[in-house]
Amino acid sequence: MNIAAQATTHHGIREAIRARIVGGEWDLGELIPGEAEFAAQYSCSRSTVNRALQALAHEGIVERKRKGGTRVRPLQLPQARLRIPIIREEVQSAGQTYSHRIMRRERQLPPGDVAQRMHLPDDHELIHLQTLHLAGGEPFAFERRWVDPVTVPDFEEADLTAISANEWLIRMVPFSRGEASLLAVSADAELAQMLKVAPGEALFTMERTTWFEERSVTFTRLHYAPGYRLNFSL
Amino acid sequence: MNIAAQATTHHGIREAIRARIVGGEWDLGELIPGEAEFAAQYSCSRSTVNRALQALAHEGIVERKRKGGTRVRPLQLPQARLRIPIIREEVQSAGQTYSHRIMRRERQLPPGDVAQRMHLPDDHELIHLQTLHLAGGEPFAFERRWVDPVTVPDFEEADLTAISANEWLIRMVPFSRGEASLLAVSADAELAQMLKVAPGEALFTMERTTWFEERSVTFTRLHYAPGYRLNFSL
DNA sequence: TGCGATATTATGTGCATACATAATCATGAA
DNA sequence: TTCATGATTATGTATGCACATAATATCGCA
Predict the structure, then answer these.
(1) What are φ and ψ of residue B147, in 5° steps?
(2) What is the DSSP string of B213-230?
(3) How confident is the model at residue A2 (pLDDT cuts 50, 70, 90)?
(4) Nucleotides of chain C within 7 Å of a protein C-beta?
């Protein structure tokens, strides 16, 4: 019933142990054999078993404690690696031609909730950008973005016709960390007009705030046209 | 500017190198020093550097190729680890009391789209369950679930008053893999009544299909009450 | 010059060993 | 009995070494 009888590679052993766990050899929360025991079973060194078990712990399959041993994780909480898609790639990989139109671009005071999410004072001016993303000429998503010109001084003169603001920022300020929320909103009049849908339509929405070393970079609110799904595997 | 000057532990070195990458010491796509070079710089063994760089590669910060060396990843695509919350924990961690009411429970043929998502023929009977999840007595989310009684024969007689179907299934069929989609839907009449909102309201919705070793376990469509946000960090 | 064989090189991996660290268990004194 | 102390034990981690593997560079020959 083993998935495959591999050589004594660390991920061969990882898969072997995973199969035994999934196969129900041990109950949830139960202690599984120690590294030395596995090493003997698979005739490999303890280091190799260690790497295998560490990988399983990293995945959340098992929990390990010094001296406490390794046990099957009691409640297997589903988790997934979610890739935030780049809109252009998303559209193109669906076989459609991508384009975008900048509807608005100006320097202004942000609304209170935006300033709050970016951890900025109310009187801090930001660059406000509205972009309509199109797939095959049809509205795909509408984006409202605020950028902090203090953190990204070059943004104000950036040429955003060839490359979208999102990709421009990723290129200029990589390795920024951030927070994101997913939610559903009803289309207001402006959104309805932009996306060519009826007011009140349910729109899948993603908000993102990103920082680079404690300095706010950008906040975006992205509304997808109806029918959009964000898929991932768990 | 170093995060911290640790000893020569593999994750000390990992963070040191990460800081140098983030600090812009090398351009995007540029080759960074080899393992031997880093080992010399930090006076540790090549194995230790190897682990550190492998971790960074796993994170997507760098790309490694045998003989090709290690280079900073050209386009840093944002990705996140999304934890699918368990509703009870979600409600309780917000300080509210959780409860649920089973509104419906019967064996029936599923709608075509459900059968399709579970990779089942149209004439395969499933257990259909409708549950209202409440936070502090108020509707929090409404769930329609289909369970395959062939894969999970015990489910039909499961006592779902103390424990929710979701947690029951996680306990009985752990380690199942699956797919999920996030989307926005407008409340139909039934949803509006269940969640006590106006028809047409935008509802954040999660669909999940899970399998255990090629056998379908369950498909759920979960509609959250308005105002819900799924938060995560990137 | 063109091309295939060979050498070189950077990462990938396994192993034996040594020591570190944290939690538990056993011991013994108050 | 209770509590402090030290022994025990399982995992965590670093190291030197050997060899595997893949991609590139180089060389030699036609």
Answers:
(1) -125, 140
(2) TTEEEEEEEEEEPTT--E
(3) very low
(4) 8-17, 21-24
Which are the contacts of A6, defined by CB distance < 8 A and separation ≥ 6?
A12, A13, A15, A16
CA–CA dist A115, A130 (Å, integer): 17
- pLDDT tens for each residue of B83-109: 888 899 899 988 999 999 999 999 999
The fraction of chain A above a pLDDT of 90, given in percent, is 62
Please determine, for residue B33, whether its predicted confidence score (pLDDT) is greater than 80.
yes
Q: Residues A58, B58: contact at Cβ < 8 Å?
A: no
Q: Which residue is closest to A80 within chain B, CA to CA?
A: B82
| Beta carbons of A226 and B184 less than 8 Å apart | yes
Tokens 């257990």 belong to residue: B127
- What pLDDT does residue A177 have? 85
* pLDDT at residue number B2: 36
Q: Please give the DSSP secondary-structure letter assigned to residue B110.
A: P
Return the residue of B nearest to A205 by Cα: B184
Strand D bases within 7 angstroms of protein beta carbons: 8-17, 21-24
* Domain assignments of chain A as residue spans, ordered by start: 10-72, 87-224
CATH number of B87-224: 3.40.1410.10
* Chain B residue numbers touching A77 (CB-CB < 8 A): 83-84, 86
Q: How many CB atoms lie within 10 A of CB A78?
A: 20
| Cα–Cα distance, B46 to B34 (Å, whole number) | 9
Residue B182 φ/ψ, nearest 5 degrees: -115, 140
Q: Each residue of A106-122: pLDDT tens digit?
A: 999 999 999 999 999 99
Which of B101, B214, B181 is closest to A182 using CA atoms? B181
Helix (H, G, I), strand (E, B) or coil at B192: helix
Using a CB–CB cutoff of 8 Å, tell me whether B36 touches chain A.
Answer: no
Q: Which nucleotide is nearest to A47 (CA to C1')?
A: C15
Pseudo-torsion of CA B136, B138, B144, B148, nearest 10°?
A: 20
The verdict on domain A10-72 having CATH code 1.10.10.10 is: yes
